[in-house]
From TrEMBL:
Pathway: Cell wall biogenesis; peptidoglycan biosynthesis. One of its GO terms (cellular component) is extracellular region. One of its GO terms (biological process) is cell wall organization. GO terms for molecular function: glycosyltransferase activity; peptidoglycan L,D-transpeptidase activity. Belongs to the YkuD family. Signal peptide: none annotated. InterPro entries: LD-transpeptidase, LD_TPept_cat_dom, Transpep_catalytic_dom. Coiled coil: none annotated. Residues 15-171 form the L,D-TPase catalytic domain. This is L,D-transpeptidase. PROSITE patterns: LD_TPASE. PANTHER family: L,D-TRANSPEPTIDASE, L,D-TRANSPEPTIDASE ERFK_SRFK-RELATED.
Amino acid sequence: MVTPQLAELPPENGVWVEVDTNTQTMTVWHGDTQAWHCLVSTAANGTGQREDSGQTPLGWHVIRAAIGAEQPVGAVFRGRRPTGEVYDDALGEAYPDRDWILTRILWLSGLERGYNRGGHADSQRRYIYIHGAPPDKPMGEADSHGCIRMRDETLIRLFDEAPPGTPVWIHD
């Protein structure tokens, strides 16, 4: 994986991802061409960099790791490992307060030292992911605990198109 330099962003060629926390949308770009977009859900607590804030961090990030390629749709993850469960209504009812991380994980790492990388504002150490969510969780509304939630279909599409090293710009 080659980590892009800030001066090289956004890339003229190649895939990059934009997350707009105001509109709760994600746009996937191929260079300067919009490839596709979808609704997402970022943090209910708004945006911010600080550890333990429950906020979605802003700025340039990179996909550091892609987890779950061989897992089924709805696979449940805890600590970035599959539990062997597959989400369904009964599981959701049994654990109504669980922050579900489903299907795939794209683990983000900040690229801006002192802003979203290092110290108490490090996105990777905050375990900020792009991940799947149960079907009853809203998209297009800020409702997560800090991560970026997506529907399974669009998450799998993103997972397939945006390997580790892909830049991600989160802004409001």
